[in-house]
Design a protein that fits this description.
Chain lengths: 359, 359
DNA sequence: GTTAGCACTCTGAATGTTTGAGTGCTAAAG
DNA sequence: CTTTAGCACTCAAACATTCAGAGTGCTAAC
């Protein structure tokens, strides 16, 4: 198993790290390739341009920097960005007004998790000037609060599920044999008696597990209930709110039409983005900051120039989803990391409160 | 009032019309400005290039064509396209396989109008290679079939409305004073007794209109009901499904980054697009084909290069919404018109059937 | 180990040249 | 009077050339 020292990876010495930091920082703010003169002019390192040149050549050999052509300045490689976010950048403090803006947003009354997260993605887009992302809580973490059935037509049944995150979901199920009105009443009662508090995702599994406890008439009800529950697409309702993707066009890298099309590809790639940020966050120890994805790291074809900064939000200290921002590879990571982390904290707090006082 | 002859507007003679047709047709297929030589080469008009040149100069004076610069070929102006779609193009027949593909899509069982229209926009995008549009039926045409209330929390009430188009909608309302369980039961019954068949859009208006009929205890219920209904955002739930907008990037006109950004603007402009195609379809007699919008006709700022071909769909011969395709100004109108019209017919049929057998 | 200096490289902007498509006009033919 | 052929003219796009500026790598001196 790979093990990382948090502060002192051995392969770069102090000066190299300073210069790598300078190059990445400069490139992030100006979007221009960085030359040796620029470095000495903008950062006071106490060495001459020639020295910087030598170090930069070394960094290029090591794979941290890259030249677009001989005689242009250098730009960071993915590896260079990686080193920067992992060891060099110090997460920037948010200003008071930024903090207040975020706090204020979360003062408003919301009482279901989905709208909270939609608002969050909106907020992130606004404040970061990148695309804001927010995944709805994983189905597995939602507990059934209440189930209601409603006959829409003789064979068509509406199933309403209220979860502990305040979300009311509506599904439609088809019965082979029509249900009479008092069938529905008893079925509803049966479902609520037996499935209160069960994870929404595994309603039918929960019921199946208890199946042998039921006898005779209750058995019949259980079978009917299963028939209904199996029909519902409960497992795949996590969705991704994404807002403000068009802000990416402001960035110079998307002047190029080919790059710009990547942004449009986002609309179709939402599923893959979800699974990617999730798996990245779960992959422990591969990087100090594994919830930053640089250039989507070649994992989604056609999104090579896109980066994501994500953070998990939690309910009662258990991760239930991710929020984040998405932008060009050249992003102000140090600032955005602060924003995302801070926002995630608030989402966690509000959701925990929402679940807390359950009756 | 302006009156149009369907077949023979007077301002162009036969030859001019042939040449206008040739230019528009050629430009639509190739995306290249059309010169006099091209016209004689590709269309057998029996005249020489010089003659064509003279006619084209006339058409330019009349405002139908336009030169991007002296000594380039001509391209149609909006007015030119308008004349083309109104009088020159003959709507193309769909091939058997195209017709079958559409028919097959509508064989699948759907039982609520919203999913039907989502599928429709998907189908249109697929078959037209443009963006597919489908507006959900206007709230005004949906009649209340059933209302259910569900207490989510002491002060939070879920309101479910099932309409005659099979759509089940969920709203949340907040009560000042908590309702007891039998309050809810009687309120539900009251609502259903008095509002069955009322247009969803005007539920509270309908109830208000009948208010003086109610006395004493029923009066109290009516007041409570009104309190709830007024809270629901019933009037503005028409939405636009749009799919496949990224296909527009295949078109050469969107190579240019500035134009390409228009496509992204679509995401924000959905409301304006709805009202635009609706008002266009309603404006009677201004054009023979008033459900074709060319270059959005300068009406939505920032979407000058976008055109829309729309068609209304009907329930029992009454228009309740629009479907269509959206693409660059230079679009194969004759083919797409056929597709859109044909599809609209099917949507109408399925919806009418859905409403038909009401009980 | 660090720095100054210098020759060298490469891009991007500016400028000029050429080519080809297309036009407008005129004069001749129908 | 309409149509056509011919010709001079225009313009954009493609290509070539030049030039300045930024940056590098290398060498020799500190």
């Amino acid at each position: 198993m790979v093990f990382f020292m948090k502060q002192h990876p051995q392969d770069l010495n102090e000066r190299e790290r300073q210069i790598l930091h300078a190059v990445v920082h400069s490139y992030i703010t100006t979007a221009e390739p960085v030359g040796s003169r620029t470095v000495v002019k903008r950062f006071d390192l106490g060495v001459s341009a020639a020295t910087v040149r030598n170090v930069m050549a070394d960094l290029e050999d090591l794979g941290y920097l890259q030249q677009l052509h001989t005689s242009s300045g250098r730009v960071p490689t993915d590896q260079g960005y990686r080193y920067y976010v992992d060891y060099l950048m110090h997460v920037q403090q948010l200003t008071l007004s930024e903090r207040q803006r975020i706090e204020k947003e979360f003062m408003a009354r919301v009482d279901d998790a989905d709208s909270l997260l939609r608002q969050t993605s909106h907020l992130l887009a606004l404040i970061s000037h990148q695309a804001g992302l927010a995944e709805t809580p994983a189905e597995g973490s939602a507990l059934t609060q209440r189930i209601e059935l409603l006959s829409l037509a003789p064979e068509r049944l509406a199933v309403l599920i209220l979860d502990n995150l305040g979300r009311l979901r509506t599904y439609t199920a088809y019965m082979e044999t029509p249900l009479r009105s008092d069938d529905i009443t008893s079925l509803t009662r049966f479902l609520n008696d037996n499935l209160h508090g069960a994870p929404v995702e595994r309603l039918s599994a929960s019921l199946e597990a208890r199946l042998r406890e039921f006898m005779d008439d209750r058995r019949r009800l259980a079978d009917q209930a299963l028939q209904v529950l199996r029909m519902l697409p409960l497992e795949r309702t996590t969705q991704l709110y994404m807002e403000g993707a068009n802000q990416l066009f402001e960035q110079p890298e998307f002047r190029d039409i080919a790059k710009a099309r990547q942004v449009f590809g986002l609309l179709d790639a939402q599923d893959r983005i979800i699974s990617l940020i999730r798996s990245a966050a779960e992959a422990e120890g591969t990087h100090p900051r594994n919830s930053i994805l640089i250039g989507i790291e070649g994992k989604i074809q056609g999104l090579e120039d896109i980066s994501v900064i994500a953070a998990p939000y939690k309910v009662n200290d258990e991760t239930v989803g991710m929020i984040g921002v998405l932008g060009p590879r050249r992003m102000p990571y140090s600032r955005l990391t602060a924003i995302v982390d801070y926002t995630a904290k608030f989402v966690s707090r509000v959701l925990t409160q929402m679940v807390g006082p359950k009756k």
